[in-house]
Amino acid sequence: MNNSLMKQADQEHQPEHMQDSSPALHQLFANYGLTQRETEILALIATHGFTNRELAEYCFISEKTVKIHLANIMSKIGISSMRRLLALLLQQALLVSGMNEGKRVSSIGIRS
């Protein structure tokens, strides 16, 4: 199966909110090897601002499982706080949109 067909098949099996998520989110997910569930949770936080309880209800999982997914996401990315995670999402969106005025921002928020 060629790449375009694989992409189309992946999108057909993704939840609706993931099919329309930004290229910035997709790039971030690809860079850090996040699982499909981790990707879904991060996209829901970025696009809807869901709390852990709301994530649990929406994804039909326990709140403890949400916390485990968040811990795994932060471990893979190499950060230790939700604020850093949200900052990284915003930075990635700015990089993709070209709004960073040529300034490079690392995954931990330090300009280089």
Automatic annotation (TrEMBL):
Q: Where is the composition biased (Basic and acidic residues)?
A: 9-19
Query: Please, which domain of life does this record's source organism belong to?
Result: Bacteria
Q: Which residues form the HTH luxR-type domain?
A: 27-93
Which keywords annotate this record?
DNA-binding, Transcription, Transcription regulation
Q: Looking at the record, which segments are called Disordered?
A: 1-21
Q: PANTHER family, per this entry?
A: DNA-BINDING TRANSCRIPTIONAL ACTIVATOR DEVR_DOSR
Q: Which CDD domains does the annotation name?
A: LuxR_C_like
Cited Pfam families = GerE (PF00196)
Q: What is this protein called?
A: Response regulator transcription factor
